[in-house]
Design a protein that fits this description.
Elements (H helix, E strand, L loop, with lengths): L3 H4 L2 H27 L4 H21 L3 H25 L13 H17 L5 E4 L2 E2 L8 H18 L4 E6 L4 E8 L2 E9 H14 L11 E9 L2 E12 L2 E8 L1 H4 L11 H13 L2 E7 L5 H10 L8 E5 L10 E4 L9 H9 L5 E4 L5 H9 L6 E7 L3 H12 L2 H7 E13 L5 E3 L3 H6 L10 E3 L3 E4 L2 E4 L8 E12 L2 H8 L3 H9 L6 H10 L5 H9 L21
Helix pairs in contact: 2-3, 2-4, 3-4, 6-7, 11-12, 12-13, 12-14, 13-14, 14-16, 16-17, 18-19
């Protein structure tokens, strides 16, 4: 050991000071943070102690203090940084609770704290095309409206809502609905006049025309909070009961998934790639409202090389921009605007790939079958709950089963399923009857999982901080993906739906229900969630038909 502590009075101070700072951070910040997010505290504390021992060894055993002391500081700093980086990558930490160490973020936080002192109870900055919306005087009625508007946004962000709606619930009141993991949760209700003021405030902040209360308007608003920034896409429109507002957070981020990230099974992914590589005919991309259809459509388009092929879209509201792809926005308010005419005009330019995000009318459907489908691949977005339903919808829209059948080369359908919260999901042993219903052999699966919603804190049950008590955290897609060859096209042309179903079943590719069951068997979703998303697509039993009315009753 060096005699540095005996020969120099300042070297012990230089050694002790970094240790004091390191120990304070670990004990007062990191340890509490690990407990809050249910990390393995004992393992982390052991790691911190190992780092401390290594730091001591570095400064004591180094041949020179000028070498050992910097190494000691680097070890201590590295220990702190490793925790911070891994903590930020953990899914249990919500986005708005992640730490940032960039100078820009630190400066923004300082500015936000300064602004918060001036604005007192106002927490958010609302930045539109005209800059940050000014905060009303605290003693003014407008200030209460601002606070209420912020409370709606803050509850949405803290509750992990992807979108929310503020709309009439009756003639006198409005209500807020938060969509969390695809399921609506009721928020606060308020008098109609107060809700209209909130909508007007947000419209003004986003640069919309506040005087136009009927026409549909769309604009982006940046919501700034404590150094963080979220893009909020606002959509307002008039309804029979009054104005309605819909907000969607980070819309472009939601459609940036690749084909591999959608949730396809391995065999479905191979089938999807085969459909994409075919590059001919019409392919249907089907899903219900807010079931991830745009994400799938954009993921498929990204699978085409937009730099060597001409890839275009026709959309009412482009959600995002794909590099190299030409997004054509259709404006129905333009004089003489017709969706089918726009599609026909683009097809005449011979694109290699055209994605039609919506199919609003028969004329558009007919245009897709008249294109040169040997040279052009057309993707058509449809509102349908399954692959067979999508084919039926397309055939009906075209009005000619033969033309529709000859055009089709593939179909996908999907639903979104909630994923169990990894922090609080509960393991249980399924009964043989349950496994039989799932189509699983007895003994093939030893355990399944159901939602929890609670965790033990100091041996007492408490709400899970990760999912906030819902038992679910995030969503994934469950799919049906089928190539349509000459056999299937002939069945469609002949309107043989039973034969088409049989032909697709022979391919042994998962249906939506089977894909959902696979996720339950993998332990990432629950059987109850499988039932929830598949029950709506089951055919409803028809009521018994009434006997024919007597002849006398048929007069008139």
């Amino acid at each position: 050991m060096q005699g540095l502590f005996l020969l120099s009075p300042w070297k012990p101070i230089l050694v002790i000071l970094p240790f004091i700072g390191w120990a304070w951070v670990v004990s007062t910040i990191y340890d509490k943070d690990a407990a809050r997010w249910y990390f393995k505290r004992q393992a982390w504390n052991t790691g911190h102690m190992v780092a401390a021992a290594a730091a001591v060894a570095a400064v004591v055993l180094a041949p020179n203090f000028l070498i050992g002391w910097p190494v000691m500081v680097l070890i201590l700093a590295g220990d702190l940084m490793v925790y911070a980086v891994l903590r930020n990558k953990d899914d249990r930490v919500p986005e708005h609770h992640k730490w940032s160490f960039s100078l820009a973020d630190l400066k923004a936080r300082a500015e936000a704290r300064k602004a918060a002192k001036q604005q007192k109870h106002v927490e958010l900055g609302l930045r539109g095309p005209g800059g940050v919306a000014p905060v009303p005087a605290k003693d003014s009625p407008e200030y209460e409206v601002r606070v209420l508007a912020e409370r709606i946004l803050i509850d949405a962000m803290e509750g992990r809502a992807v979108r929310f709606e503020l709309r009439p619930v009756d003639q006198q009141n409005y209500g807020v609905i938060y969509m969390i993991d695809g399921v609506g949760q009721a928020g606060p209700t308020m008098p109609k006049d107060q809700a209209v003021k909130v909508i007007t405030l947000l419209k003004a902040a986003a640069g919309m025309d506040v005087k136009d209360v009927r026409r549909k308007q769309v604009a982006d608003l940046a919501v700034e909070r404590a150094g963080g920034r979220h893009v909020l896409r606002l959509t307002t429109s008039g309804t029979a009961g009054g104005m309605a507002l819909r907000g969607q957070f980070e819309p472009e981020e939601q459609v940036k998934r690749s084909l591999d990230e959608l949730g396809l099974t391995d065999d479905q992914l191979a089938e999807a790639r085969a459909i994409i590589d075919d590059r001919r005919g019409v392919v249907l991309i089907a899903a219900g409202p807010f079931e991830g259809r745009t994400s799938t459509l954009y993921a498929v388009l990204r699978s085409h090389d937009a730099y060597t092929t001409n890839v275009q879209t026709v959309e009412l509201e482009p959600v995002g921009m794909i590099e190299g792809v030409r997004h054509n926005k259709f404006d129905p308010l333009e004089e003489g605007a017709e969706y089918a005419t726009t599609v026909r005009s683009i097809l005449r330019r011979d694109p290699d790939v055209l994605a039609i995000a919506e199919l609003p009318d028969q004329a558009t459907a007919v245009e897709t079958t008249r294109a040169d489908l040997e040279r052009t691949r057309i993707y058509v977005g449809l509102n349908a709950e399954g692959a067979l339903a999508a084919v039926q919808t397309f055939v009906k829209a075209v009005g000619d089963p033969r033309a529709a059948g000859q055009a089709l080369h593939g179909v996908t359908a999907q639903k979104l399923i909630r994923l169990l919260c990894p922090n609080c999901k509960v393991e249980y042993q399924p009964t043989p009857e349950m496994l039989k219903k799932l189509g699983v052999k007895p003994g093939a699966v030893s355990a399944l999982y159901r939602k929890g919603g609670q965790v033990l804190i100091r041996n007492k049950p408490d709400t899970c901080p990760m999912c906030q008590g819902t038992g679910y955290f995030g969503q994934a897609g469950v799919f049906e993906v089928f190539r349509l060859g000459s056999e299937e096209r002939a069945l469609i042309a002949g309107q043989d739906l039973v034969g088409l179903r049989s032909a697709l079943q022979k391919r042994r590719l998962p249906t939506i229900q089977e894909a959902a069951i696979r996720k339950a068997l993998e332990g990432i979703t629950s059987v109850e969630e499988v039932v929830r998303i598949t029950a709506s697509s089951q055919p409803k039993k028809r009521p018994p038909s009434k006997p024919p009315a007597p002849a006398a009753a048929k007069q008139g």
